[in-house]
Write a structure and sequence with these properties.
41% of the residues lie in helices and 16% in strands. It has 647 residues and is an alpha/beta fold. Bound molecules: thiamine diphosphate.
Length: 647
């Protein structure tokens, strides 16, 4: 750790430093972030870009009282480092360490647990109005990226900025990137402005703003008008925001720490909301991240050698995302109606190859999940076969669009939901544990989940042949090893039909896996067989509609254990319970146990550790099966082997 950084325990220490020292501290922090992320993984490029910006903010404001909000929140590492959390970076995003996102439970310097884009301006508006209502005057600052400011929620908030009659500073951190280059008309507008700027222009803007800035006691409104006039002569960037009546300042150099400090001091005195547009470089200071910011947006651990990357770990098997991308591209070669839509997650959803091969059939709509779904509905209505590729957690944004524009119209849009289930180190904002719940209740929706790589292809083929919307969910994980891909999994998908993958003689328990956790069911079966307990294993395949044969098993004297990578509330197991209740009513005599994630938010850690924590594994299934045989054997038939053993 650098010498200056060693001395920084709190923002008060940042305030003491000169501009020159702050520059040195910025370099030390960059190195510290690089070292930490290369060991634990995390968001790298965005964090390297905002070091000076963050230090300047902490130098000027007092965020114990003032409020600092980060949009998305993935770029908050410098903020965490200077607010007393640097010693916890050894376990960044792992149990016992700090989260990769803001979290008020960690620090009074954080306001909200966030991880989704576009929320900071609206929450800042609420906080500002709240302050006014209570005659408080803490400053409020929000930092939002150029990709997140065009998110629908951000735009709706900007449209309401007029509600705020006091200071509220929006720092627009423009690095021209989302994960890939930012998409859409506003991005083009920003990039035209960017291209027209020289470094000299940026300096001129800074000094223009400062020259015309009010000194305390002067008429602020009058001063703003003077600045606006003077800037408008030089730059056109203000037009977009000023047409919304939002005072705009900039663009300025977001790495010029001395100027940023002066600007923040001046802007803190406004009694009006304002936007400061800053330019930063994603991945600054680490050439591999600077030249490939998409790759280093969020990364696993890697080895560095000075300014280069020496190695990254290569997994032994393909993951679900890659397998999906490969099959979709193959299927698209045969059917020209297939088009793919994503919202700023091309790489994350496995569409890089598809984009390369079918650029004219690929749509990245930016961070706009609800629009993505409606665009898909439109594409579908016009005769194409849209495949919407969105992470489970971000699809939550599209609930209403799926209900009205897709389900109600019974349009055969295919939803490929990546990161469905526990996601590991990104933590509670990113787990995909609710999609079965919110999609299952919508009429017309078909919900399916492939258990392995073979089934990814089969599920896609099935979905693309349906006349109604189909959802395919799969986790952030490697596909199961070959030995867990049973012959039954090669059978084509049939609507609402499960498949039996293992049948034991005289079994009194059936384990029903939904999706990739079928592997855990198979592992459990092997463990139980070793103890002389035979169980059936069934691949559930559909959560809507659920196969009636699954609950019919209860009639055949079998207890049922369902397993899913989803919260137990409203998931696959719940669907089985509902069907059992309507089938048997009060006459139900067989136990049905639902295994899945508990209905609570699950913290950051590795996915394996989380699976263990919530007991979504073979051991838990074995334990449950034994409990079923022991404690509840009276509900089972007389062939129960444990019962026999105990007698
Ligand atoms: C609603 C939502 N959709 C997608 C994402 C995934 N995501 C995380 S960061 C990011 C890019 C954000 O870009 P920008 O706001 O410009 O910030 P930068 O990373 O460039 O600093 C995306 C798309 C998200 N966090 N939230």
């Amino acid at each position: 750790m650098g010498k200056l950084l060693e001395q920084v325990e709190s923002p008060a220490d940042v305030k003491k430093l000169s501009v020159l020292e702050l520059k040195t501290l910025a370099d030390e922090i960059r190195q510290f972030i690089l070292d930490s992320v290369s060991k634990s993984g995390g968001h790298l490029a965005s964090n390297l870009g905002v070091v000076e910006l963050t230090l300047a903010l902490h130098h000027v404001f007092d965020f114990k009282e003032d409020k600092l909000l980060w949009d998305v929140g993935h770029q908050c590492y410098t903020h965490k480092i200077v607010t007393g959390r640097k010693d916890k970076f050894g376990h960044l995003r792992h149990a016992g360490g700090i989260s990769g996102f803001p979290n008020p439970a960690e620090s009074v310097y954080d306001q909200f647990v966030v991880g989704h884009a576009g929320t900071s301006i609206a929450t800042a508006i609420g906080m500002a109005i709240g302050q006014s209502q209570q005659n408080k005057n803490d400053k409020i600052v929000t930092v939002v990226g150029d990709a997140s400011i065009v998110n629908g929620v951000s735009f709706e908030a900007l449209n309401n900025l007029g509600l705020v009659k006091r200071q509220l500073l929006i720092v627009l951190n423009d690095n021209s990137m989302a994960i890939d280059p930012t998409q859409g008309a506003v991005a083009k507008y920003f990039s035209r402005i960017r291209l027209s700027q020289t470094y000299e222009d940026l300096r001129k803007t800074t000094s223009n703003i400062l020259r015309h800035m009010p000194v305390i006691g002067k008429d602020v409104e009058e001063a703003i008008e003077r600045i606006k006039k003077s800037i408008r002569m030089v730059l056109p960037a203000s037009q977009m925001f000023e047409s919304l009546k939002i005072p705009y300042f900039g663009p300025v150099d977001g790495h010029d720490i001395g100027s940023l400090i002066q600007l923040f001091r001046a802007l803190a005195e406004l009694n009006h909301p304002a936007i400061l547009h800053v330019y930063t470089k994603k991945g600054k200071g680490f050439p591999p991240a600077g030249s490939r910011p998409s790759k280093f947006h969020s990364t696993g651990p890697f080895k560095t050698n000075g300014g280069t990357v020496e190695s990254t770990s290569v997994p032994s098997r393909q993951n679900f995302t890659n397998v999906f991308g490969k099959h979709l591209t193959e299927l698209a070669k045969k059917d020209s109606r297939i088009v793919a839509i994503t919202s700023a997650m091309c790489d994350g959803t496995g569409l890089v190859e598809f984009r390369k091969r079918f650029a004219e059939r690929f749509y990245d709509v930016g961070i706009a999940e609800s629009a993505a779904v409606d665009i898909a509905a439109g594409l579908c209505r016009s005769g194409l076969k849209p495949v919407v590729c969105i992470y489970s957690t971000f699809l939550q944004r599209s609930f209403d669009q799926i209900v009205q524009e897709v389900a109600l119209q019974k349009l055969p849009v295919v939803f490929c939901i990546d990161r469905a289930g526990l996601v590991g180190s990104d933590g509670p904002t990113h787990h995909g544990l609710m999609d079965i719940g919110f999609l299952r209740m919508m009429p017309n929706m078909v919900l399916t989940a492939p258990a392995n790589d073979v089934e990814v292809k089969l599920a896609l083929e099935f979905a693309l042949g349906e006349d109604k919307p189909v959802v395919i969910r799969y986790p952030k994980d490697l596909v199961p090893p070959r030995k867990f891909v049973r012959a039954a999994c090669a059978k084509p998908f049939k609507l609402g039909k499960s498949v039996v993958v293992k049948k034991a003689k005289n079994s009194v328990i059936a384990i029903v896996g939904y999706g990739s956790v079928l592997t855990e069911a198979l592992r459990a079966e092997t463990l139980l067989a070793k103890e002389g307990i035979g169980v059936d294993v069934i691949n559930g395949r559909f959560a809507a509609p659920v196969d009636e044969k699954i609950v019919a098993l209860a009639n055949k004297g079998k207890g049922i254990i369902t397993v899913e990578d989803h919260t137990v509330a409203c998931g696959f197991g719940s669907a089985v319970l509902e069907l059992a209740a309507t089938t048997f009513g009060t006459a139900i005599t067989k136990p049905i146990v639902v295994l899945g994630a508990p209905r609570r938010f699950i913290g950051h850690d590795s996915r394996d550790a989380q699976l263990m924590e919530v007991g979504m594994n073979a051991d838990k299934i074995v334990e449950t099966a034994k409990e079923m045989l022991n404690a509840r054997y009276s509900m089972l038939d007389a062939r129960c082997p444990i019962k026999n053993k105990n007698e």
